[in-house]
Amino acid sequence: MALLYCNGEEAVDISEFNEKIQQVFKELLENDALEQSEEPMRPLEGWQRYIVYPSRFVEGVHWSITGKCNFNCRHCLVSAPDAHHPQLPLADCLHIIDEIARCGIRRVDITGGEPLVRGDFEEIVKALSERGIDIGVVFTNSSLLTKDTLEMLKKYHQFPAFQLSFDGLGHHDWLRGVPGAEKQADEAFRLLKAYGIPVSVAMCIHKGNRESLRDTANYLADLGVNSLRVNSPQELGLWKKYSEEYSLTENEVWETYRNYISDYFGDGMPIDIELEGFFSCKKGKTEYSIHYAKKPNKDISFDKCPCCESVRYNIYIGAEGRLAPCMDFADTALRDKFPSVLKERLGDLTLKGYYHDVVETKVSDLIAKNPDCEKCEHLSSCLGGCIVEDISDEGDYLIPDHRCCYFHKHIGEAAVRAAADEAINKYCPQTEEKET
Predict the structure, then answer these.
(1) CATH homologous superfamily for 60-248?
(2) What is the pLDDT of residues 308-322, one digit of tens each?
(3) Residue ranges of the domains in the chain?
(4) Residue 11 contacts by C-beta under 8 Å, 6 or more apart in sequence?
(5) Do 434 and 424 meet the contact criterion of CB atoms below 8 Å apart?
(6) What pTM does this model have?
(7) H or E element: which one contains 22?
(8) Predicted confidence band at 433 (pLDDT cuts at 50, 70, 90)?
(9) Which of 28, 388, 414, 431 could link 34 by a cystine bridge, Cβ 3.0 to 4.6 Å?
């Protein structure tokens, strides 16, 4: 609130504020976010003035604007082919947009279902633009993506990146449940490349397509795709029907990634790559990171450390208008516990209630429920992993992430570094080795 006085007109005596606020002023001055003057300055214009929003700070919204989809994906988290989720009428969507704007949020990532199935998609884009909200990313299966879509976005001064699904050369149609899906994706990649639009790809790895990873990555790189994120399907939604036959064991996942790490450097690091929590690297760089092996402050307090940092600054709004920490929570036993943005103020929901309590879950809460974690030598590196990964059928999310746990106990950071460093030394001998 003190910053409201920093308007160029009123004299502000910093010493009148408490020590905490004085320190904030000091840091803002040191970082040139404030300018100090002995005389009144030109009054701030409207866009320069500080605004107090009735919400916790939220960087962006991940919003499913529909639960409907024209594909029949075998691993769908929200069981979209069964019409498990609805499609809200436009009036409700406009209400949600108003609530997003009221909280001062300036970025929305749009997903579904398949967002482009909405006949009023343009109206949603228009409403976001009129409220000064940028579309950051559009998540799509690409089947309905056309030049008209891109021209429409441009008309409203929206220039989002796109994330497309692509599940391996020769394998995409099977996982998506639609003949011709791979051809449609190829056409979309070429269209987006022609427009110079950033493209990322998500690939689900399973027993059927694991051998296609290298060829797929190189194919996508040749088409100008910026990044490829590879994940195993979660044991949620429709994948439960196929997991027994097609899911990889943790050792098989690691074997697949270990082999590709060598291929990745051998192929000249052609694309930004993320292999779940195992390995991440940027195109053309030898610096790499291992998300499963966190590097927290040595003086870390588990009472203050959140189980998930991302959900504290980003929110998910589902196809029914419910607010949840992330999309993975939306189709669990907790679904009905999360509040509706159509019934309560979004800002209020971010500050109190069940959603707020889940978001504020600390590592100490997980430890209290799982005493063995406290004794584990890997606790300060894994921090419990992802709290939604092993959520129970009853909705208990305070369960250690078995995949992260398995990584630390049976694979380990050293094994990943050994594979990466060996490949770097073999294929990039002139490059200084770096690790993060």
Answers:
(1) Aldolase class I (3.20.20.70)
(2) 989 999 999 999 999
(3) 2-48, 60-248, 310-411
(4) none
(5) no
(6) 0.89
(7) helix 19-30
(8) very low
(9) 28
